[in-house]
Specification:
The chain has 150 residues and is of the alpha+beta class. It has one domain (29-136). Helix content is 21%, strand content 26%. The chain has helices spanning 16-22, 37-46, 65-78; strands spanning 12-14, 56-60, 80-83, 89-94, 100-104, 107-112, 114-118, 127-131. The strands form 2 sheets. A 5-stranded antiparallel sheet has the order 1-3-4-7-8. The chain has a 3-stranded antiparallel sheet with strand order 2-5-6, with no helix packed on it. A hairpin with a 2-residue loop joins strand 5 (100-104) and strand 6. 28% of the residues are buried.
């Protein structure tokens, strides 16, 4: 590597067939047999329907942690992989309906229609929350080039 080498600051996305075919989830703990205190705290933070946190927070429309469980299972099964420039990996599930709301200092700002499952090498750190699909418009798989979203 020389001084002119640059790294992309934009995340790379991978379709599910490429993720599965290339073993891109190996070495990661997708889920734990029972939730850790960290995961329980995250679930309470993102279970709705209102936010009690200052700053920006995404909250599911349902106050049921069963919805987080359902969405996280779907993300692990069907989600596309996002790898940020930092190496952080998440599975993104496009729910195609509004599953949550973004709050800014306890004021609702926009509806959310996707779910991010943040992966970790520690099963006690993986967690999920609702996000907006607007930042995923027009993404293509970095491995095969197929369109992931339109």
């Amino acid at each position: 590597m020389n001084s002119t080498t640059t790294f992309s600051t934009t995340p790379a996305f991978y379709c599910r067939p490429c993720v599965n075919g290339c073993g891109m989830l190996s070495g990661l703990s997708l889920t734990a047999s029972s939730p850790s205190t960290y995961q329980t705290d995250k679930a309470h933070k993102h279970a709705g329907p209102t936010s009690t946190y200052d700053g920006i927070n995404s909250v599911l429309n349902s106050s049921s942690t069963a919805e987080i469980d359902y969405l996280s299972r779907r993300a692990r099964q069907d989600g596309v992989l996002e790898i940020k420039a930092t190496g952080c990996r998440s599975l993104i599930l496009f729910a195609h309906n509004y599953i949550g709301t973004e709050f800014n200092s306890r004021t609702p700002t926009r509806p959310l229609d996707s779910f991010r499952w943040v992966l970790s090498t520690s099963s006690s750190m993986a967690h999920g929350y609702p996000v907006s699909s607007t930042k995923y418009t027009g993404i293509k798989c970095a491995a095969c080039g197929s369109a992931i979203t339109s």
